[in-house]
Amino acid sequence: MSIESLARWESRLRPLLVRLPPAVAVRAYSLSRQRFLTALSRRPPRRAVEVSGLDQTLWGLRFRSPLMNAAGMFKNGEGYALSSRQGAGGYLAGTTTHRRRSGNRRHGVALPFAPYPRSGAASNWLGLPNIGHQEVAQRLALLSRVKGCPIGASVAACPDPKVGGEEKLTQLVAALAAYEAAGVDFLEVNESCPNTADDPGGLEGVRARLRFLADGFLSRRQRRLPVIVKLSCDTAIEDIDALLEILVGVGFDGVNFGNTSIAYERHRDQLDASETRLFDFFTRSFGGGLSGRPLKVDSLRLVKAAASWLRNRPAGHEFHVVRTGGVECVADIEQSFAAGASLCQWYSGYFESFGRHGHWLYRELYSELKARSNPVSRPGR
């Protein structure tokens, strides 16, 4: 059976499968998800999708479309052939850490995951599984570029309780330098992973870490290499001004809203009633982050707030806002750009769309986007 047929059948059965006893559903999906992702990245389409009329230039890089994968889909630098042939506007590897990590395991379940298909959402408590900065950087250095599909890498400080905060940041600076040497086109610093034991330290902690990275790497870059920072969709609106002030002030090149959410109670009512039992089991048993449609309102609100700050206080260098949470359709892309975003990333929405359209998922979305009578004006165009 082809990977597309498998995904199509699974998408039809998923609403029934998640009605299994929650412990059974989580165990089954946690195992099958990893196998599916491995198979998917190894089976790119034979024929590449042609993309035209949607390109934009950001930071001197040509993105052939406004949509690409979010971090977490291709943790170890796999899947570039898949993304580029499907028609993605860019590619993001990672998130990677200083040391190889096997990820989270609890109650006998490795890399816990649960889908909520009727809600267009999912929960995961993966814990940043990856093979490490250096090895992924070496893999990316060997990739043959496809025009209009830049290569990026997402990085995070290693959540090792035995390592001090300054040492973690020193390791992260070394990782950014390794990816720069590997020739990647852009970098994303994951500042908000909810699936590790690290204490973010509030706004002051974020400010201190960003300044460290700016002093250790941004001021020493050997080429025009954009570095953006990914923040949580749970970021408080009242913190946006302070966050943008530090991001712009120390020389970062963009902000991404955002990472998965741990605001379980606030989002619970947005899930289909048939899926709350599984959601409650997962959050009680594992915690983890919620992704997908329930984050749509929050991510858009944060994008608007960031764009508003930038209009009132223009950066002295090129700075862009990226939207990730809840992106799943053309309307989301249009709303993102109307709100001030320059680029969109998707994750849960990608897999929902792959279940319907297979390898043609980007082509179907682009056809609809170009067919709109009043296409939005994209900031980076």
Report the structural category.
alpha/beta
Average pLDDT, all residues: 92
Strand order of the largest sheet: 3-15-14-12-11-10-9-4
- Supply the number of structural domains: 1
Instruction: List the total number of helices.
Output: 13
Over all CA atoms, what is the radius of gyration?
Answer: 19 Å
CATH class category: Alpha Beta
The coarse silhouette is globular
The helix content is: 40-55%
Number of strands: 15
Would you mind describing this structure in some detail?
Helix 6 packs parallel to helix 7. The protein has one domain: Aldolase class I (TIM Barrel, Alpha-Beta Barrel). The protein has 13 helices and 15 strands. A hairpin with a 4-residue loop joins strand 7 and strand 8. The strands form four sheets. Strands 3-15-14-12-11-10-9-4 form an eight-stranded parallel sheet. A three-stranded antiparallel sheet has the order 7-8-13.
Detail the topology: elements first, then pairings.
Blueprint: H1 3-17, H2 22-42, E1 56-58, E2 61-63, E3 67-69, H3 80-86, E4 91-96, E5 105-106, E6 109-110, E7 113-116, E8 121-124, H4 133-141, E9 151-155, H5 165-182, E10 186-190, H6 202-216, E11 227-232, H7 240-250, E12 254-259, H8 264-268, H9 276-285, E13 289-292, H10 296-312, E14 320-323, H11 330-339, E15 343-346, H12 348-357, H13 361-371
Helix pairs in contact: 1-12, 2-9, 4-5, 5-6, 6-7, 10-11
